[in-house]
Amino acid sequence: MNAQELIAHYDSVLAADEWILWNPVAWTIIEPMGENHSVEYIGDLVSGVHDFHLEEVCLKEAMEVDEEGPQIYLDFFEGGYFFFDTYDLVGTQERLVRILGKNSFIWGMRWEAGAVQRRFFYACNGKIMLRMTDVLREPELEDATPLAEGITAVRSAWQTSPGANRDSALLALISLTSGALLTSDWLNGNQNAFVTKT
Questions:
Q1: Which of 10, 53, 142, 169 is the most exposed place for a label (fewest CB within 10 A)?
Q2: Does the predicted TM-score (pTM) go above 0.85?
């Protein structure tokens, strides 16, 4: 999909799943610079000394009925993988950047509960290269600005056909530059929860 199609896509997702905007949700996309990471490699790094397993559960139902239930979900796409955290209050996203950032590109989006606020970052090889809250206003583009081509495409698409939700522009930038795509079907379906045993 191009930038305009992605903005429309995410307008649809956020209209159907508005709960994302009002909860401490985080989406973290990892694209290894070499071969894609295996589930075992990811699990060993993320779980540390604890055992882990993937458990298939309905993401939306688990979030609504059990605050102590699974909160972090793992999925793969062509070129990489992503985590979707339904309750990131303890800096899980920052930790993922630290432990998985080496030799990887990472895109991250996080919403702050009840604040109508979102934070986007882009990291390369463990170093944060770009932060913003509104791709339509920031940053001022320079030759060395990371993701400049994608930012320009999203802004141009928005000027041609403005979306309904400015968060759609940030999500469109992530998908346009990473290849990962978040859908309503995914958010409301059965997904692999990342479960650690303490």
A1: 142
A2: yes
